[in-house]
Amino acid sequence: MYFTGLDIGTTSTKAVVFDISGKVLTQKSISYEMFHHHPNWSEQNPDEIYEAVNQCLAFLDKRSLLETLSMSSAMHSIMAVDESGKPLTNLIVWADNRAIEIGNKLKASSEGKEIYHRTGTPIHPFSFLCKILWLKENEPEVFAKAHKFIGIKEFVWHKIFGEYEIDESLASATGMMNIQDLCWDKKALELVEIGEEKLPKIVPTTFSRTKQDIKYFIGGADGPLANLGTGAMGKNKLAFTMGTSGAVRICVDEYYTDPQMRTFNYLLTSTQHVVGGATNNGAVVIQWLKEQILQTSISTEELIEKAQKIPAGAENLLFLPYILGERAPVWNANAKGVFFGLSINHTQAHLTRAVMEGLILNLYSVGKVLMEKFPVDEICASGGFAKSDFWLQLVADIFQKKVVITDNVEGSAWGAVRLALKSLGLEAKTSAQTTSRIFLPDTTKAELYDQLHQKFERLYIKLQDEF
């Protein structure tokens, strides 16, 4: 029997076909663009993404591989649709910071803090909550005409089944769902002045519908599913994901919000909480460095290979990677990227290494918060970066923790399938979670990276009022 995980991501939609052990049999990926029509805006065409989904499914159907399908999706996207389901807006994605002023004002208020502790979602312009407030204030005609406010997975699900439904995992990342009651939060609804009928119906992550003999499972959000897919379950295992963006997360059985509002609490299922933090700035920063700054024709792989030859610390060159503002742990949409310590001796390779180290140092700032609360002893890595030994060794050296890689790095897609298997009453064999590679920290670099991280955080503090 074939099991497909459909992962609707920021830069592409990917359909991955597994057997019951988690072995990847085949996959199909279709890419699409992100648009920045105005400063701080990040949008996509929802119809283009739906077409990518169709192309992926047609590829599998033609090969008679489409039997069951479970869905994963990037979080924090929102769009308004009319009564016919037609988009009234583009898809406003997680990287969009147009609601900066709204987010900053709400975050500083007692009401914002109260909503954070009830919903588990930090107050930031990336959230569903702040984006609806922005539409209400800046596009009142669209706000008034909106039949529903939905994300990209709900748009695709409605296209297939004609129903507006959202899984409890994605709903928990909107900033509008009460985590403990598993329903739309009354205070959040009052704040944006809408009723729950304007939002999709919340359903479990194992919820399914059938069409043309294919069973579709609604699945969950890509971050929590990556924990499940990589085996990062329990207080001692930290999931580390880096694709276009990045995140570190721990899956626990308890609800936890941070007194300083540095971390999120999302759901994998109604009883499994995923605590962590995500960054806007992942591999997209490497792409920016190559195309916009270095403007070089050599491949990203060649740049990284050259960076590997540069000493740890990039010879006193430090990079704050906030080119898209930032989520965890600073939650500052105004933050900017900074190269600090440039000298005449620095080369392309130095800049590349500094960027790579800056990305990991930033996620270490989140990981450090989690490791103060939970007894982490290993890191489970997934995402596109997990195919690079150099990236993974950097994680091990900066976190000073063992990094393990499973045979299957398609964590979110396999996590979605594992939810489907559970619903079907099938037991997933564990070969997909068999460790294939282990990266041990170089303890001789511990002090260097500790000092570099302290400098990283001091530099942000000194500059934050200047952004």
What features would you describe in this structure?
α13 (389-399) links the parallel β21 and β22 (402-406). This protein has helices spanning 46-62, 100-107, 110-119, 128-138, 140-145, 152-161, 168-171, 186-192, 222-230, 283-294, 300-307, 348-373, 389-399, 411-424, 446-463, and strands spanning 3-8, 12-18, 24-31, 43-44, 68-73, 79-81, 91-92, 148-150, 165-167, 177-178, 183-184, 201-203, 208-211, 214-221, 237-242, 246-252, 264-269, 272-279, 318-321, 337-340, 378-382, 402-406, 435-439. Helix content is 37%, strand content 23%. The strands form 7 sheets. Strands 17-18-16-15-21-22-23 form a 7-stranded mixed sheet, sandwiched between helices. It has a 6-stranded mixed sheet with strand order 3-2-1-5-14-13. The chain starts with a strand and ends with a helix.
| Spatial arrangement of strands, main beta sheet | 17-18-16-15-21-22-23
- Tally of DSSP β-strands: 23
Number of helices, where a helix is a run of at least 4 consecutive DSSP H or I residues: 15
Mean pLDDT: 94
The poorly predicted ranges are: none
- The general outline is globular
CATH architecture of one domain: 2-Layer Sandwich
* CATH topology (fold) name of one domain: Nucleotidyltransferase, domain 5
Mind summarizing the main beta sheet? 7 strands, mixed
Helix/strand/pairing class, anyone?
A: alpha+beta
So what's the CATH class of one domain? Alpha Beta
